[in-house]
Amino acid sequence: MNHSLMDIINTRHSVRDYSPKPIAEAELSTILEAGRLAPSAQNRQPWRYIVFTDPAQIKALAKNTGLVGMSNFFIKDAPCVIIACADTKKNVRINNQDYYLVDTAISFQQMMLVAWELGIGSCWLAAFSEKVLAKYLDIPKTWRIVALSPFGYPKDEKRLFSKAISAFAGSSKRQALEDMVSFRKPQ
Ligand SMILES: Cc1cc2nc3c(=O)[nH]c(=O)nc-3n(C[C@H](O)[C@H](O)[C@H](O)COP(=O)(O)O)c2cc1C
Questions:
Q1: Which CATH number goes with the domain that contains 33?
Q2: Which of 6, 11, 127, 169 is the most buried if burial means most Cβ atoms within 10 Å?
Q3: Residue 170 domain-assigned (yes or no)
Q4: Other C-beta atoms within 10 Å of 83: how many?
């Protein structure tokens, strides 16, 4: 491995076709460690991760997410699924903003970038019913489910479904720098 962080950011893309090859325990630990080390508002570290690695449990999970459309069925083939939750007891609220979402997103994204460095793909998923999934997971009442993601090695062959999603919402479609940045002119 000899990639710069920018290479990893540049080449990362959402993976929706997974090989069933399991992720080695050491690699999973590295991924989780990247999440553990993330910054957070007042260092409150609200993230809580639920890790699935058993194929039968993953298949059952895929049927119990309170499916929103077809957009998450592909998790069933992945060798690992991680559910990113946040304990709202650890929330920091400033300017009417809840920072548990920001904190958990930073932590989860760190995990995804380190995973990609190891050749392991992932895909942020918001397509689930929190109510259905929270009941299935039997998580504490103070927890929110922020997102979930499969983790695994990309399959060589992409399904038509994945090609279609990448075509309308893939990594190549990013806004221009000038649409997202404005430089303050010196006074
Ligand atoms: C918060 C969030 C929620 C997302 N939810 C879904 C989802 O439910 N299903 C899906 O297939 N992709 C989902 N995505 C992936 C985006 O579609 C994808 O990141 C975006 O189109 C850019 O493509 P790329 O990740 O390949 O660069 C989500 C991404 C984010 C950040």
A1: 3.40.109.10
A2: 127
A3: no
A4: 23
Q: What is the mean pLDDT of residues 167-185?
A: 87
Inside any domain, residue 133: yes
Average pLDDT, integer, range 14-36: 97
CA 33 to chain centre: 15
Asked whether residue 23 is domain-assigned, the answer is yes
Structure tokens at 67: 């499916």
The ligand 1 atom nearest the CA atom of 68? 8
pLDDT, tens digit (0-9, with 9 covering 90-100), for 59-80: 999 999 997 666 788 999 999 9
Domain count, the chain: 1
In a domain? residue 43: yes
Ligand 1 atom at shortest distance from the alpha carbon of 72: 9
3-state class (DSSP) for residue 69? coil
Residue 84 CA, ligand 1 centroid: distance in Å: 15
Q: Domain range spanning residue 41?
A: 12-158
Q: Per the structure block, which two tokens stand in for 31?
A: 């991924």
